[in-house]
Write a structure and sequence with these properties.
CATH superfamily of the largest domain: HAD superfamily/HAD-like
Distance between the termini: 47 Å
CATH topology of the largest domain: Rossmann fold
Oligomer: single chain
GO biological process, one term: regulation of proteasome assembly
Radius of gyration: 22 Å
Protein name: protein-serine/threonine phosphatase
Shape: elongated
CATH architecture of the largest domain: 3-Layer(aba) Sandwich
Largest sheet: 5 strands, parallel
Number of strands: 11
Strand order of the largest sheet: 7-6-5-10-11
Domain Ubiquitin-like: 9-81
Order of helices and strands: EEHEEHEHEHEEEHEEHH
Number of domains: 2
Number of helices: 7
InterPro entries: FCP1_dom, HAD-like_sf, HAD-SF_hydro_IIID, HAD_sf, Ubiquitin-like_dom, Ubiquitin-like_domsf, UBLCP1
Organism: Caulochytrium protostelioides
């Protein structure tokens, strides 16, 4: 049911698999990934093994595309190809998200393809998450007069996929140096699109919880994220995806706002609710090949230090951070 209490518009579909016909009904605002999850419940064919023949003409679009964007008619029929997993329990809610998530070209303002109804639904989703999200648990007490830096982990600071002999070989060059340089001016937060169990293990093994020269204020995992619908420029379609809404932090810690918060992430869609606060960085992958040459954190560190002298971050376009010519901080940081 829609957060407002109105019934969600539904789309009945039919598919065949191994000579058997199936009927299912999905919300119109569901995406292809959610359709695949329902198909898994009926057939035990895992999403990564599913080939949906005839759902659309041509190549199946991204799993994040909203079904409403595909122009499907009620009782549209297609064929499923794929092999079931026998005697295997697939927990689609508890399993981590795929390690490789394609970035999306999203409009940062309401577009013709995104109705006021979708915008209102996104806001209701925010209110629903705000109501159920518990208070933020601080790892270290907050210091006065600091700005807020929210950092993604996977592929922003850390290559979570490449197989190496030691976890330090997955770390993005300059990670600790950046955090040490910024700690006098910022409260440091990690917000990761993964489960708490894996997030805790990663930041522990990377030495982020015990570093002598910086401290993390708090950490958020994927349970603080929720789904929204955004407009994709490239294909003029609606996409449903998870988002990191800074509003959830600002309401709980009112000393922070869009004026003094910046969010660094390799996925643009994570900024969908706060595009003015996002700084997109290139993804760090193939650490075994790129660790010796990757220097992406150096200009980011310089820019974040330059922001120390900016009273209101909303006056800046963070996408132009590499050409920003503001002064670096001089003198001691604000008193703790």
């Amino acid at each position: 049911m829609d957060p407002s209490g109105a019934p969600e518009p539904q789309l009945p579909l039919r598919f065949s698999w191994q000579g058997k016909k199936y009927d299912l009904t999905v919300p119109l605002d569901a995406n292809i990934a959610e359709l695949k999850a329902l198909i898994t419940e009926l057939t035990d064919v895992p999403p990564d093994r599913q080939k949906l023949v005839g759902l659309v003409r041509g190549k199946l679009p991204s799993d994040l595309i909203v079904l409403e964007s595909l122009g499907l008619t009620p009782n549209h029929a297609f064929m499923l190809m794929g092999t079931a997993t026998v005697n295997a329990f697939i927990d689609l809610q508890a399993a981590d998200l795929p390690e490789v998530i394609d970035d999306l070209e999203l409009d940062e303002a309401p577009a013709p393809g995104q109705s006021t109804l979708e915008i209102a639904k996104n806001k209701r989703a925010l209110e629903k998450m705000h109501a159920k999200m518990p208070p933020i648990t601080l790892i270290h007490p907050l210091r006065p007069h600091k700005k807020l830096l929210v950092l993604d982990l996977d592929y922003t600071l850390f290559d979570c996929k490449t197989v190496v002999s030691h976890i330090s070989q997955r770390m993005r060059p300059g990670m600790h140096e950046m955090l040490v340089a910024l700690y006098p001016y910022y409260e440091l937060v990690i917000w990761s699109q993964t489960s708490w169990r894996w997030l805790e293990a990663k930041i522990t093994d990377l030495g982020m919880l015990t570093h002598a020269n910086y401290k993390l204020a708090f950490v958020l995992d994927r349970t603080c994220m929720f789904s929204v619908v955004s407009h994709q420029k490239k294909h003029s379609m609606l996409v449903k995806h998870q988002v990191k809404s800074l509003e959830l932090i600002w309401r709980r810690l009112p000393q922070f706002s869009a004026a003094n918060t910046i969010h660094v992430d390799d996925l643009r869609q994570n900024f969908a609710m706060n595009p003015q606060s996002g700084l997109r960085i290139s993804a760090f992958k193939h650490a075994d090949k790129n660790q010796a040459t990757d220097r992406a954190l150096w200009p980011v560190t310089k820019y974040l230090l330059q922001l120390v002298n900016v009273a209101d971050f909303t006056t800046l376009d963070h996408s132009r951070f590499e050409t920003f010519d503001g002064p670096l901080p001089s003198g001691p940081p604000p008193s703790d």
